[in-house]
Fold this sequence. Notes:
It is a single chain. The protein is α/β, with parallel strands linked by helices. Helix content is 39%, strand content 17%. The protein has helices at 10-16, 20-27, 64-76, 97-103, 121-127, 143-154, 164-168, 202-220, 223-226, 232-244, and strands spanning 2-6, 32-36, 50-51, 61-62, 83-94, 108-113, 118-119, 130-133, 187-188, 191-192. The termini are far apart. Ligand 4FV binds at residues 88-90, 114-116, 118, 133-135, 137-139, 141-142, 145.
Amino acid sequence: MRFDVVTLFPEMILGGASYGVTGKAIKRNIVGLSVWNPRDYTHDRHRTVDDRPYGGGPGMVMKYQPLVDAVNVAKQHSKGMKNKVVCLSPQGKQITQSLLIEAVQTPQLILVAGRYEGIDERFIDVTCDEEWSLGNYVISGGELAALVIIDAITRLIPGVLGDEDSAKQDSYMEDLLDCPHFTRPEQGEYGAVPETLLNGNHGEIKRWRMKQALGRTAQRRPELLKDKELTAEQDALLKEFLNEE
Ligand code: 4FV
C-alpha cells in the first residue's frame, strides 16, 4: 500500500509518519509514503499557490493548477497502481473505522491536504474521487487528517502489528468502545486489578472484556449500539452489566 500526500508542509507529514508502528512499516517497506508540494508545480517566480476568493471575504483560496499537477505527478509515480484521490476537508464524509477498513483495499491513496480558507472547488470536482473529514470542527490544514488516516490504515495492514489480533481487538472493530486495560501492579494505591483478569480462565476473561465493551458503549456512546445487531450472548452480557451498575 502507498500513500501520496499533496501538502505545502511535506516535512510535517514525513516527520509525523516516522514514529512508532507507522514509522516501522515505512522502514520495512510494507507501506510507501511520498509527499508532493504544490509549490513545486507553480510557474510564476513567486511560486503562488493561493489567491483571493471570488465574491470577496476573508482569507485566501488554494489555486487548482498546482494541485492538479501535483496529483498527476503522484499518479505517474505509482506505475499504474489502482488509486483514489481523497481531499481532506470539513465538507467530507466522516472518517470511521469501517471507511478505513474499506480503504485498505485501495493500493494507492493520494491524500490532498488543504490550507488557507480552502481549495478552488473545481479541483475537488475534477480531480478528487472523495472528500473525507476528520470531524465536525475546523483545523488549519489537512495534514493532521492525512497523518491520522495513514496511521489508522497502516495498522490494519497484515504484518504491520506484531500480534495480528491486536488490530482485531481495536476499538470500533466491532463498533464497540474498548474494554478497560490493566497491568502491574496487581494491587496499588489506585486499587486492584479485577479478579477475573487474574484467574487465567481465557473464556471468562473474553466474556468479561466483551461485557465491559458493551456496557461502556451503552453508557458513553449509545448511538453506536442503535443499529448494531447484538448476539443473544452479547444481549445477556449487556443486561448483566447494566443490572450491576
Ligand atoms: C479538515 C477536517 C479541516 C479547512 C480549511 C483546512 C481545514 C483549511 N480537514 N477534516 N475537519 N480542514 O478542518 O479534514 O484549509
